[in-house]
Design a protein that fits this description.
The chain is an alpha+beta fold and 414 residues long. It is built from 12 helices and 18 strands. It folds into 3 domains: 3-137, Translation, Eukaryotic Peptide Chain Release Factor Subunit 1, Chain A; 143-274, eRF1 domain 2 (Nucleotidyltransferase, domain 5), CATH 3.30.420.60; 280-408, Ribosomal protein L30/S12 (60s Ribosomal Protein L30, Chain: A). A hairpin with a 2-residue loop joins strand 2 (90-100) and strand 3.
């Protein structure tokens, strides 16, 4: 498995755990979250947990007191398995979660090596687990400022990882080239140039207000529009000088409304080739090309799984929004069948399609469908790509193809 695939899988595993933890709640302040930086001595963490356990004896509510102390004991027990924190640190969650009907269940999770190093030690006790710092690590990577303009209108926004976000827009008061009667040609030309200059300053003001506070986090600025507008705008150095220095390209774009921001990102494909969204878009463009013009596309759970097992899939494409489990049923006559169900739903009794034998719900083997397919892909040397739904083609993969597709090494006819 290459580095990108390992990173995708790791992020998916973290995202799945975070989604699970976010759904939990406790009564009072009895859910404990501890963030441990990589340079923190675990003996110090154990000492802190021991001190918190002692202080928890002062909690008035017996239920909360017992829950907090049990959570801290569970965390302390888990820490004994480690000599030092992992390379990027670790996060520990423990507490009694509400399961309905006044019942609770103790949950403990240890997440090793998050996507980015943990910066500071956090001890947090509340009715919810503290997952926001982890969620931020999994957020969109890559930040580009987007500007599209002509002499009639302009739009300014962001490319955040794989997501395009329109933020500000403006319309100009620049008169057309045909002057009104009674005005001399020179006066009309002067007024028009002044209006153009004022509009460029307004657009730059919008961009500066939005981008300058984030300039040290940005990877660059993209400017699009027809010629000569975009050239005049950049050559006139209307942008703040620190933004002007990180303009990575100007590109011909026909539309300057919100859709023009997407056109700009498409036009800047080569410059953005290493960004997450363009990597995803390249994969999906190839998938759709093969789907319509070739024979090297597969989609849907059954067909893609068959092709995976044959070793015919070069790249497995899975939607990041796929939230399903695969349940495997084996009847008394050894017929094996698989059914996809929503992750939140319970399994049901299953009637074998071949012989009619009924397999009780509890006898089915349940597994996350992404992990199921990725495991097969890893065994067959197939690269896996997790595709965002923050762009049109990625959304189509999820909505039109069930979030599962692939590009084949050779045609199988399946």
């Amino acid at each position: 498995m290459n580095d990108d695939a390992q990173s995708d899988r790791r992020k998916y595993e973290f995202r799945k755990v975070i989604e699970e933890l976010t759904e939990y709640s406790g009564s009072g302040t009895q859910l404990v979250s501890i963030y441990v930086p990589p340079d923190r001595q675990l003996s110090d963490v154990v000492a802190h947990v021991t001190q918190e356990h002692s202080e928890a004896a002062n909690i008035k509510s017996k239920q909360t007191r017992t829950a907090v102390q049990d959570a801290l004991t569970s965390i302390k027990d888990r820490l004994r398995y480690y000599d030092n924190p992992p390379e990027n640190g670790m996060v520990l969650f423990s507490g009694a979660i509400n399961t309905g009907g006044g019942q609770t269940d103790m949950v403990t999770r240890v997440l090793e090596d998050p996507p980015e190093p943990i910066q500071s030690f956090i001890y947090h006790c509340d009715s919810d687990f503290l997952t926001e710092p982890l969620a931020e690590m999994l957020g969109d990577k890559g930040l580009f400022g987007l500007v599209v303009l002509d002499r009639r209108e302009a739009n300014v926004g962001w490319l955040k990882g794989k997501r395009i976000e329109a933020v500000k827009s403006a319309s100009s008061l620049v008169p057309g080239k045909q002057r009104k009667g009674g005005q001399s040609a020179q006066r009309f030309a002067r007024l028009r140039l002044e209006a153009i200059d004022n509009f460029y300053q307004e657009v730059a003001g919008m961009a500066n207000d939005l981008f300058v506070p984030k300039r040290h986090e940005m990877d660059g600025v993209l400017v699009g529009g027809p010629s000569p507008t975009k050239d005049e705008f950049l050559d006139g150095e209307y942008l703040h000088h620190e933004l002007q220095d990180i303009v990575i390209g100007k590109f011909d774009v026909s539309y300057t409304d919100e859709s023009g921001l997407s056109d700009l990102v498409d036009a800047a494909g080569e410059a953005l080739a290493e960004t997450e969204m363009m990597k995803d878009k390249t994969q999906m463009d190839e998938f759709f090309k093969e789907l319509h013009q070739g024979e090297l596309a597969t989609y849907g759970f059954d067909a893609t799984r068959q092709n995976l097992i044959m070793g015919a899939v070069d790249r497995l494409l899975l939607s990041e929004d796929l939230r399903q489990d695969v349940v495997t049923y084996v009847c008394a006559n050894d017929h094996e069948e698989r059914v996809l169900i929503n992750r939140r739903k319970n399994t049901t009794d299953h009637e074998c399609e071949e012989c009619g034998d009924v397999v009780p719900a509890g006898d089915g083997t349940r597994e996350d469908v992404i992990e199921h397919l990725m495991a097969i892909a890893e065994q067959r040397g197939t690269e896996t790509k997790l595709i965002s739904t923050d762009f049109e083609e990625g959304e189509q993969l999820m909505n039109a193809f069930g979030g599962i597709g692939g590009i084949l090494r050779y045609s199988t006819g399946i």
